[in-house]
Specification:
- The structure is a homodimer of 323-residue chains.
- Chain A contains 12 helices and 14 strands.
- The longest helix of chain A is centred in the C-terminal third of the chain and has 15 residues, at 294-308.
- The first copy, chain A, has helices spanning 23-28, 41-50, 61-72, 86-96, 145-148, 166-179, 191-196, 198-206, 216-223, 228-237, 276-289, 294-308, and strands at residues 5-10, 14-20, 36-39, 55-59, 76-79, 101-102, 114-120, 126-131, 151-157, 183-187, 209-215, 241-245, 251-255, 258-262.
- Chain A binds chain B through residues 20, 48-49, 51-58, 67, 85-87, 90, 93-94, 97-98, 112, 122, 312-313, 315, 317-319, and chain B through 20, 48-49, 51-58, 67, 85-87, 90, 93-94, 96-98, 112, 122, 312-313, 315, 317-319.
């Protein structure tokens, strides 16, 4: 059975609102450095009122990965809910302009397009306060043979489980994709997200998920240990291919008996760490779609990750890898 | 009579949509490199469909200057029309978050907030295609004793004359501001704009305008000569203080018998030339508001201009001058 696209992403469709802040600001709003917190519409309004001048660009974890994958030359499609508003138009434009097929139309009657306030500290660390808006309206009826199609890889993000119908939506998507011959990949999003949905993620990995993307804190949360090596060993034991990123220490890819350690690519100056993991996943999956070896996939992932942290914003600028 | 703010800007309120392009793209859309062309709603939609992934941020020439001035610590207010939409909210937020008073509410019933498609070439040159939208709806009734107040400086941009009521709007604003004891400053926008409104600009300089900001092509267009030195001499002869920027060659400030040449500040890498002139004007006017000498004003202008071309976007990031 021929695949219609190499990568199908299913995730929360989000526009990022990026601003530089100092650590006093994070303390004043009660946001731990590096955290992602969900906020409601009123909190989003209040936070935006307090924030400094900002820049807006399309974001969302798996949204970034899908865009990066398409930017590298892969064929991709995307499922996520935006509203019929200007932020929704930005999100849709940025996907379409990379050739990504959008499988859902903009929703017209309910909450506005989601936005994540990305607060960038002087050292490049990012702290996110996310208002899910239209993302909360994704429903099981959005997932069907038409919208899933026949991807080579279906990539889900853990954050989808935070939406009201997330468990049914992801369950249906994984089932349909697996039946269509897809590899199901899961990006764990963040360690707090893993704690919120621990049982669901473990069950998915014992079931349809064949590939996991996680950073060190996420895999340790999932494997219930404070020791990274132990977490990696336990991840290997699941039989699932796990690509585990460790910031400056590079990444480790485990798959049953296979274990490959990939060094991080050298970075001149960290500008904004937003999207490092998403870009790694894009590079890794692009290599995978080309039938590359695991070390080659990991190397391409590292290269994309190091490129994105040297710019502001989570999506690679065109030509960023040429430098 | 005490001033209520140091700087009041009156201009087209615009959100920039920035994207990297190659020169083939510019040729395909028939846009001369470095030009600013006005486009209508249908052209804007078509262009956006053809453009790659983009970043959105508040812009507009004098809008950038007012934001930069406030970022430096000056007190500022702003008159410009935005719609009651998400781009209007972005524009208003970015001004308010710098402490800038907005003197007009968002317009609610007509065209959407203006956007300028800023197409950035690999060498940092920018080409702009601007849809004026809500900006075209500014009317003489928007200009009155309340909205003008008592600024130390009223700064107008040439682009305002491109709007349907521009001549009446600017005429009324200059008259009220001068009556309130303000210095009236005019930023010439671009050389094509000078050609479109040559008689009006000359008349304004013979009348209420006491200060002009221009680059070399603009002042040569206004003074009807191909020779910069001759243009500067003629500018000096008007008796108006003219701050004339020349990209890498720095700037020249003339005022009657006074003439000061300011070298450009060293620049490591030109990333995006958008806003260099606007940032120069912000720095110059900030020095002026502090009672600094012309050479000191020019030096601060140069410093701001060189800082802004080393980042993407036309408004200085917080802390950009600390580096």
């Amino acid at each position: 059975m021929k695949h219609d696209v190499q990568l199908l992403g299913l995730s929360n469709a989000i526009v990022d609102i990026l601003a530089h802040v100092d650590d006093d600001f994070l303390e004043a709003i009660g946001a731990p450095r590096g955290s992602m917190m969900l906020i409601d519409a009123a909190q989003a309004e209040s936070l935006y009122d307090r924030m400094g001048p900002a820049t807006e660009m399309s974001g969302g974890s798996v949204g970034n990965t899908v865009a990066g994958f398409a930017n590298l030359g892969g064929s991709a499609a995307y499922i996520g809910r935006v509203a019929d508003d200007q932020f929704g138009a930005i999100f849709a434009h940025d996907m379409k302009s990379l050739g990504v097929q959008l499988r859902l139309p903009p929703e017209t009657r309910k909450a506005p397009t989601a936005r994540s306030h990305v607060l960038i500290s002087p050292d490049g660390q990012r702290t996110m306060q996310t208002y899910l808006g239209a993302c909360t309206e994704i429903e099981p009826t959005d997932i069907n043979e038409i919208t899933i199609g026949r991807p080579q890889v279906l990539l889900l993000e853990g954050y989808i489980w935070d939406t009201p119908h997330g468990p049914e939506v992801t369950g249906k998507a994984m089932k349909l994709a697996a039946a269509a011959g897809a590899t199901v990949a899961l990006s764990l999003s963040d360690d707090q997200c893993v704690l919120r949905h621990h049982a669901a993620f473990r069950s998915a990995i014992e079931g349809p998920v064949g590939m996991v993307f996680a950073d060190d804190t996420e895999i340790m949360a999932l494997m219930e240990t404070d020791d990274f090596d132990q977490a990696a060993d336990r991840a290997a034991g699941t039989g699932v291919l796990c690509a585990l990123t460790r910031s400056a220490e590079g990444s480790v890819v485990v798959h049953g008996d296979q274990r490959h350690v990939q060094a991080a690519f050298p970075v001149e100056k960290v500008t904004d760490t937003t999207g490092a993991g998403d870009a790694y996943t894009a590079g890794f999956l692009y290599g995978y779609s080309q039938g590359k070896s695991l070390p080659d996939c990991a190397a391409l992932g590292s290269r994309c990750g190091s490129a994105v942290i040297q710019q502001v914003g989570a999506r690679l600028e065109p030509g960023a890898l040429a430098a």
